[in-house]
Design goal:
The protein is mainly beta. It contains no helices and 20 strands.
């Protein structure tokens, strides 16, 4: 996500250098994107893994996971259009690489394992449902080059203003009414590797969840303003619900 997006995120960082990160995402049963407010046309919901790799002073940043775009939400836009609730896998990588064009074929309520791990050649594999979807090695990494700033992310974007000049200038820096909501999104069996190809250790996000609001310096209009979330060893469950529209 970027600083021009009208977004709310939950993040939790795994400390130190690791060699793999994975989780199982439970896709929410129902979602609403820009619902009962003006349809901006570019909102979305995400659950993904994010990390950096460093080589010769250069930082390579990756965001890989699952997403739902506005036209696929169960209900979306001020005309309450109906989508099929499906999600798909996506990634954003260095040098402008991205893939957000995959088929939407993941059903509400389904469990989808995702993983980022260093392979035997030093590349970084993005794995979905136990199948390698993309291998990254922009920095010509070795197997000894680890992962830093690793984190899990659950995010909601109501719209992307595309540039800072498009962000509304209202009194008190009050943004337009928020209209994107979701039933529970679950990231479970969150685990990491401390050695390449080694055992997986469950990560407990309890007490380590950060809330991020974009764009910075502005006030969000919504009830509730924040995600509701719960944690336990290996698990983060979050929802963003508004009274009167929940199922």
């Amino acid at each position: 996500m970027s600083s021009t997006e009208y977004a709310k995120l939950l993040t939790s960082y795994i400390p130190g250098e690791i060699y793999g990160l994975r989780a199982v995402v439970t896709i929410p049963s129902k979602t609403w994107i820009a619902y009962l407010v003006k349809n901006r046309g570019n909102g979305f919901l995400d659950a993904y893994l994010s990390l950096d790799r460093n080589k010769n002073g250069n930082v390579f940043h990756y965001e890989c996971g699952l997403s739902q775009l506005v036209g696929y939400a169960d209900l979306w836009g001020e005309l309450c259009k109906k989508g099929d609730g499906l999600w798909h896998w996506m990634y954003a990588a260095p040098n402008g690489q991205s893939d957000t064009k995959q088929p939407f074929d993941m059903k509400p309520g389904s469990d989808v394992p995702i993983e980022l791990s260093i392979n035997a050649n030093g590349g970084l594999d993005f794995i979905v449902n136990y199948s390698v979807k993309k291998t990254f090695n922009e920095g010509s990494f070795n197997t000894s080059d680890g992962i830093t700033n690793a984190r899990i992310v659950i995010g909601a974007c109501d719209q992307n203003f595309d540039s800072t000049s498009n962000i509304p200038k209202k009194p008190g820096n009050l943004l337009t009414e928020w209209g994107t909501f979701t039933n529970h999104i679950v990231m479970k069996n969150i685990a990491y590797q401390t050695t390449r190809g080694g055992a997986w250790t469950l990560f407990d996000p309890t007490g380590k969840v950060n809330e991020v609001f974009w764009p910075t310096g502005y006030t969000h209009q919504t009830t509730p303003q924040r995600f509701t979330y719960a944690t336990s060893n290996g698990n983060l469950t979050a929802s963003l619900k508004k009274a009167g529209i929940n199922a």
